[in-house]
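Researcher: I'd like a candidate sequence for this fold, 212 residues long. If you have to choose between options at a position, lean toward the conservative one.
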């Protein structure tokens, strides 16, 4: 019985957390980060101020949670790094994962908040880079280094290669969405963009070797 209540309370806490982060993102977009108070966020989320403060004692902590959760998979986990050994399959997995991630409306909203506030609050940009972009980028870099070590790719500069691959995908999926409110490519168009990026990477870095 106690375990059932505990599970119930955890679900309620998660629902409230999601309501808080969703309301905060919408208000940050509408009023700006500086112009949004925690009290207003609590009101919009339909929770008490004490509930909000228990989970997020400061607005900075709330923004950090939004950044961290935005860069996670829908399961709430960090994106998985594929095993080395098949460069094409690994790049397809990484590419489609990244396209899904940066194609979410929440990711577009996050970038817009940071860009709008950057002149006044450069710390928001540093938080977005340190907690979001950098960990994801490092995961892709490490994957490419693993393929290089396995002999399935020649990647002397994995940092540059990761930038190239992610940049090709973001240029189709994310950046047009920042400027065009009606930019919403179909799934097959996104898959095609990812597949073309994979082919470019294979032509540049592939060895044609696959581990048995």
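Model: Candidate sequence:
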């Amino acid at each position: 019985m106690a375990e059932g209540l505990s599970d119930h309370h955890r679900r309620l806490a998660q629902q409230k957390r999601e309501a808080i982060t969703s309301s905060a993102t919408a208000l940050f977009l509408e009023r700006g980060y500086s112009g949004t108070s925690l009290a207003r966020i609590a009101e919009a989320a339909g929770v008490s101020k004490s509930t909000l403060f228990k989970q997020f004692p400061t607005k900075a902590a709330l923004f950090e949670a939004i950044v961290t959760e935005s860069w996670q998979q829908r399961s709430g986990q960090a994106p998985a790094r594929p095993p080395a050994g098949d460069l094409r399959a690994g790049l397809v997995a990484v590419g489609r994962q990244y396209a899904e991630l940066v194609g979410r409306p929440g990711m577009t909203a996050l970038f817009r908040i940071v860009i709008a506030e950057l002149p006044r609050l450069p710390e928001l940009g540093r938080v977005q880079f340190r907690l979001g972009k950098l960990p994801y980028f490092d995961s892709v870099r490490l994957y490419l280094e693993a393929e290089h070590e396995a002999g399935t790719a020649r990647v002397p500069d994995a940092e540059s290669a990761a930038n190239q691959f992610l940049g090709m995908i973001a240029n189709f999926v994310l950046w047009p969405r920042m400027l065009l409110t009606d930019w919403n490519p179909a799934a097959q168009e996104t898959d095609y963009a990812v597949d073309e990026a994979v082919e470019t990477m294979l032509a540049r870095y592939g060895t044609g070797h696959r581990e048995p």
